[in-house]
Design goal:
mainly alpha, 20 helices, globular, 0% strand
Length: 250
């Protein structure tokens, strides 16, 4: 670890990082340290590639996308959730060859919500974050697949779901753990025609958007979550005209 901090380029290129005893140290490495190594390497050591493409630090993946890469790594980077990383990966000379070029064309067609390529997109594996975003957005994606993507570990699919015209309450429920981690998308969903109880719960995630006008549009039965919500919501409740004695007592 000390050598890696002093000389990241040389120390991190050592295959000893693959030894089982090194795994705990591997996962504790700073993304900034890894970034320094990737920027210094002319060619990234092969054993690092499957690790680096999955690290949730965008500048690191962006630096990786600028290096010579094999097709299996590019297939993942062209599906990166970050548009800057994708753009860099799509522009690589190696990306103009198959199978990467075929995937890029598939993604471009899905961006236009093409019906013809949807079966191919549904069958494609491994399905990366960006393909899942596009599937979540596509109006003809089967409900079974939408539920599967909503419950996946990919937090970025909220972007695709929030761009859909049709978003049933059941999907919003399935997305709830992701919404709690990214409340900015809850704000976008408040513009949707959703059941009052679901809309009231969304305000708990973005209380700064709650107003007396919003409160007036919600039935009292939907407001119970506000009792345990942030102070701003409880203040609005306390000021609501005609509040029932039961709720006021709470």
């Amino acid at each position: 670890m000390t050598l890696a901090e002093v000389c990241p380029c040389a120390a991190l290129a050592n295959p000893a990082w693959l030894v089982p005893e090194s795994q705990e140290y591997l996962h504790s490495l700073s993304p900034l340290l890894l970034l320094r190594a990737v920027q210094a390497w002319e060619e990234v050591p092969a054993f690092w590639l499957p690790i680096l493409v999955g690290i949730p630090y965008t500048p690191l993946r962006l630096a990786l996308a600028q290096k010579p890469l094999p097709p299996e790594t590019l297939l993942r980077l062209v599906q990166d959730p970050d548009p800057g990383v994708r753009a860099q990966a799509w522009a690589r000379p190696e990306a103009q060859n198959e199978p990467v070029l075929g995937l890029i064309r598939l993604l471009q067609a899905m961006e236009k919500e093409s019906q013809e390529v949807l079966p191919k997109a549904l069958a494609f594996t491994p399905r990366g974050p960006y393909l899942e975003i596009l599937l979540a957005r596509h109006p003809a994606t089967p409900e079974r697949v939408l539920r599967e993507i909503a419950r996946s570990k990919n937090p970025f699919v909220l972007e695709g779901f929030c761009q859909r015209e049709d978003l049933p309450p059941e999907l919003v429920e399935a997305l709830w753990p992701k919404l709690e981690g990214q409340p900015q998308w809850a704000e976008a969903l408040l513009q949707r025609d959703l059941p009052p109880d679901l809309k009231a719960r969304l305000y708990v995630l973005v209380p700064q958007r709650a107003t007396q006008e919003a409160l007036a549009a919600l039935p009292e039965a939907a407001l119970l979550p506000w009792l345990e919500g942030p102070v701003h919501l409880r203040l609005l409740l306390a000021q609501r005209p005609g509040l029932s004695h039961a709720l006021l007592a709470r």
